[in-house]
């Protein structure tokens, strides 16, 4: 059985559904700290779980005979800056609890998301390589970088089969973004459709690596299915799809909504975004497990608008 933490979140909502499609709802235990998330999971088991409550986690793993954990619960970059110590505690303690379950042989496989937030101001910004200077400035990025090192450590020392991707900004239309720096690229679609002026918290030329949710789901499932011996990176893989600025996605939306208006009002998130890469080199993922993305910006925008307006 597969247990997902943070299943009610932006990624969790879609990844849990994809796992249920693939393996059957009867094999899936969706968990979230928010009990209202239950409504999303009529197709599988749902349990309330605060990931800092390790006893409860162990209890659920035993109760459902879980063999795989997708540990998605985390505090993201923008919200994390409001409470750095708690963000560190939640992001790190919960990961270590899950890794310990792998070490103890209670679970066989772990998925844990990292992020391009592991990079920083001295990282090469264009085509950022897998291995380079990593000097994250947010507590979220620091926790992801430390988490990557812990994943590699648990694999090397204890043989724990933990796998990870450094996601770029993820763009989906099925659930709201949860407090990150890339959220604008999700929110801008609703504003365009609802005919509202969009206030963008990043500057118009702020390029960031992004990925449409179906590509992110595919990358995750592909990585988790790859034979063990093909996984040469046990910290976290660079993965990339597209890269665009607010101005570019706005221009794309103007093709559908010629009267759509935007105003730029950069806040503290602009500084976070400026410390992250513009684009990512993901050769290793392409070589090791044949990663390929399907959606560029135009195809993504069309797909989102088709779904939200039909
Ligand atoms: C954030 N969406 O903005 C996350 C992400 C690439 C960044 O990990 O915090």
TrEMBL record:
Q: Which SUPFAM superfamilies does this chain map to? A: NAD(P)-binding Rossmann-fold domains
Pfam families in the cross-refs: Epimerase
Molecular function (Gene Ontology), one example: L-threonine 3-dehydrogenase activity
Entry superkingdom: Bacteria
Q: Which GO terms describe its biological process?
A: L-threonine catabolic process
The residues covered by the NAD-dependent epimerase/dehydratase domain are: 2-232
Spell out the family assignment given in the record's similarity comment. Belongs to the NAD(P)-dependent epimerase/dehydratase family.
Name-wise, this protein is Nucleoside-diphosphate-sugar epimerase
Q: Which organism is it from?
A: Galbibacter orientalis DSM 19592
